[in-house]
Design a protein that fits this description.
The chain is an alpha+beta fold. The protein has four helices and four strands; from the N terminus they run H-E-H-H-E-E-E-H. It has helices spanning 4-21, 36-40, 43-55, 96-109; strands at residues 28-33, 62-67, 79-83, 89-91. Strand 3 (79-83) and strand 4 (89-91) form a beta hairpin. Helix 3 (43-55) packs across helix 4.
Length: 119
């Protein structure tokens, strides 16, 4: 006989599995600006570079999501990197090529690319 506690335990295990599977507990978080103005500036292509790297296994322990408008239209597309124990880094005027550099240099090697950082 299945008890209510058994049902709760099963539901909890499923929820934890979903949380881990979606990367919500990752130590690195990447947020790509996807407001309408940022999409017009090319952020959908930037997002695709990060998605492809994650899906091909080139990035591990990374949570990728979109963010809304930050009011910096002159610096779009923007990408924000948040890592456990470090200050957030915001990059501006990101192209697909720069997104690949962010993957290779910042996310894989820990090198902040200072010339692209915005306040």
């Amino acid at each position: 006989m299945v008890t209510p506690l058994d049902i709760i335990k099963k539901k909890r295990a499923e929820a934890v599995s979903r949380i881990i599977g979606k990367g919500y507990l990752s130590t690195k978080r990447v947020y790509v600006g996807m407001a309408t103005c940022e999409i017009a500036a090319g952020s959908d292509e930037v997002m695709r570079v990060f998605r492809d790297a994650i899906s091909k296994g080139g990035l591990t322990d990374v949570y990728l999501s979109q963010k809304g408008c930050v009011g910096r239209c002159n610096l779009e597309p923007t990408v924000e990197i948040i890592e456990s124990g470090k200050n957030p880094v915001r990059y501006g005027l990101i192209t697909p090529e720069k997104a690949q550099d962010i993957i290779d240099r910042h996310l894989k090697k820990g090198e902040v690319i200072t010339e692209w950082v915005i306040d």
